[in-house]
Amino acid sequence: MTATPPRPDAAFDFPSHEERARWATLPPSTIIIDHLWDARRAPEAGPRLGLRFGEKMLAIEIDAPFHGDPPPEAAPGRCPKLWEHEVVELFLLGSRERYLELEFGPHGHYLALRLAGVRRLQADGMTLPYAASIENGRWSAEARVPLEWLPPDWSRFNAYAIDGDGAQRRYWARFPVPGARPDFHRLDCFGTFEGAAPISSRRKG
After folding, report:
1. How confident is residue 197, by pLDDT bands cut at 50, 70 and 90?
2. Which residues form the domain of 156?
3. What is the number of domains present in the chain?
4. pLDDT tens digits for range 92-132
5. Does residue 16 lie in a domain region?
6. What is the DSSP secondary-structure string of 141-180?
7. What gap in Å lies between CA 112 and CA 90, rounded to an integer?
8. Residue 202's pLDDT is what?
């Protein structure tokens, strides 16, 4: 991702107490990544993300096939440019193009970015509890994300995965992002997360 300065009109404010309280009541949900980025059906079962909301934290559980890609050279923990490796990603989008990008790898690496405008990085030094393990050709992980990291008015999302190397590199998407090349920052392609938005702002019908 090539970062540019944040939009001056889209500062990444913290969500209100009322928003966090509403998110904490959301039921557990599962996100299945079952397509490639260009809407082609994936040839195999893809990653699954389980989301559980608490009073202060969003717990994210990942179950995904392990493709054997080499780990980053960095020690497990926060890892810049994790998208260059085998990874599962979750983007949470709020109003005025404010969004949270979360990346998780099978070897214990993660990355959390806050953006204000497409690819306009505002913060990238956040750390969070994260653990991952590999067993029998699959990897699993759990992360705990503070609710205050979520963008105000959050109601849309997309989830992605990347694996392979060179010509064999594959890009997965929960909601396809068609175009000349994979672009995970196509905010117009994001889907609605049921129940995240306040009732007054949800579309009718």
Report:
1. low
2. 23-178
3. 1
4. 999 999 999 999 999 999 999 999 999 999 999 899 999 99
5. no
6. EEEEEEGGGSPTT--EEEEEEEE--GGG-EEEESS---SS
7. 10
8. 42
